[in-house]
Amino acid sequence: MSAHIKNFINVTRLNKPIGFLLLFWPCTWGLSLAYYFEKDLNNFVYYLFLFFCGSVLMRSAGCIVNDIVDEKIDKKVFRTKTRPIASGSLSKNLAWIYVLILCLLAFIILIPLVYSLQRKTKKSMLLYAIPLLAGLAITHAFIPPTPGPVAVADILNADLGWVILVGFIVGIPTAILSGLFLENL
Question: Which of 63, 91, 110, 159 has its CA 20 to 30 A from that of 52?
């Protein structure tokens, strides 16, 4: 196996599936609940595949961003000093290219979900796309342990516990109010 493929597998943690399975598990519950009411096996399998791919792609992109942000720390920790970015076997520029490709692929997977909502409800696609993308951005930006808040907490020398608490205080009401707003559309 080439060094590039080994580096990609290691930096995305594809060799450690617990992370993307933890993302995929709640998706499976939601899809199973939808299947209970709809009884459409083809749709269930189709969306199961989309959510699985999305979980793998987004977890992989998150792992790369985490390694980029934590490069200096990873070099000092025994468990993480052999990671591709920390060890120098993968450049940060190539890692950012991987992140962009993975996020683009995840976005491409998100598009059929928006289309299916639009077809089912006959409403504007923007009603689903904009809140979905905004929700993803808000969730990923405010609630740790995603790399963004962890990096900001580190830069500001803030206690990560407080960052998590404030993230939930801001994120949960925002999600609830957004749900109430979208319910009326």
Answer: 91
DSSP assignments along 54-122, one per residue: HHHHHHHHHHHHHHHHTHHHHHHSTTTTTSHHHHTSS-HHHHHHHHHHHHHHHHHHHHHHHHHHHHHH-
Q: In angstroms, rounded to a whole number, what is the distance separating the alpha carbons of residues 65 and 71?
A: 10
Which tokens go with 19? 């992370």
pLDDT digit string (tens) for 65-111? 888 888 888 888 888 888 888 888 888 889 889 988 998 888 888 88
Q: What is the dihedral of CA 169, 132, 103, 50, to 10 degrees?
A: 120
Q: What integer pLDDT is reported at residue 151 of this predicted model? A: 72
Identify the domain boundary among 122, 140, 170. 122
Q: The domain containing residue 139 runs over which residues?
A: 124-185
